[in-house]
Design a protein that fits this description.
Order of helices and strands of chain B: EEEEEEEEEEE
Largest sheet of chain B: 6 strands, mixed
Strand content of chain B: over 45%
Distance between the termini of chain A: 32 Å
Helix content of chain A: under 10%
Shape of chain A: globular
Number of strands of chain B: 11
Radius of gyration of chain B: 13 Å
Largest interface: A-B, 36 and 27 residues
Largest sheet of chain A: 7 strands, mixed
Oligomer: heterodimer
Strand content of chain A: over 45%
Chain lengths: 115, 112
């Protein structure tokens, strides 16, 4: 058990709708990263939050946005859902640049299906 | 741009055989490398973290080596068991606090 929890675990949405996914980070970690994993592929980096500020973004459109709260939990928001957004969304918690050992711990993921 | 490759994409072995999983990366300027296990439809479980100054890490039946200069890491799983069936992913990080760049994974099936 990593201490990183994501909610919900499964979600079905209709194309064009909006969705919010949530992640609570491991105790002592101030950095949360979000990844999208399509079936049969490795996770792709969406963005990262460090101390409530966006700290890097992958090749995803602006309709993917996020937040980090003072307790370091985080949200991923996706607007105008498309069929290709169907994937497993993973949240990773790390100590961030404050520590030498930056082992990442992942939540169980949210399976999003867009129909 | 860092690219991480895992070959083969899938592997099937009889129970008891040792597993050898390969990971290669194009940019040797990494901070650390991490191996993960993923069961179908689940999140990632961290197996081993190797910092760039280290050559290997061990945990139980698992041993991971790192050769930065050649851009390679190998995960060895001794005496495989059916419970080892899963997808194994490697990921590299360029600097502390940066993103992970993943390979596509190797799907392992251990047959009883």
């Amino acid at each position: 058990e990593t201490g990183v929890t994501q909610s919900p675990t499964h979600l079905i949405k209709t194309r064009g709708q909006q969705v919010t996914l949530r992640c609570s980070s491991q105790s002592g970690h101030n950095t949360v990263s979000w990844y999208q994993q399509a079936l049969g592929q490795g996770p792709q980096f969406i963005f990262q939050y460090y101390r409530e500020e966006e700290n890097g973004r992958g090749n995803f459109p602006p309709r993917f946005s996020g937040l980090q709260f003072p307790n370091y939990s985080s949200e991923l928001n996706v607007n105008a859902l498309e069929l290709d957004d169907s994937a497993l969304y993973l949240c990773a918690s790390t100590p961030g640049r404050d520590r030498v050992k930056t082992e990442a711990f992942f939540g169980q993921g949210t399976r999003l299906t867009v129909v | 741009k860092q690219e991480v490759t895992q070959i083969p994409a899938a592997l099937s072995v009889p129970e008891g055989e040792n597993l050898v999983l390969n990971c290669s990366f194009t940019d040797s300027a990494i901070y650390n490398l991490q191996w993960f296990r993923q069961d179908p439809g689940k999140g990632l479980t961290s197996l081993l973290l190797i910092q760039s100054s280290q050559r290997e890490q061990t945990s139980g039946r698992l041993n991971a080596s790192l050769d930065k200069s050649s851009g390679r890491s190998t995960l060895y799983i001794a005496a495989s068991q059916p419970g080892d069936s899963a997808t194994y992913l490697c990921a590299v990080i360029k600097a502390a606090g940066n993103k992970l760049t993943f390979g596509g994974g190797t799907r392992v099936l251990v047959k009883p």
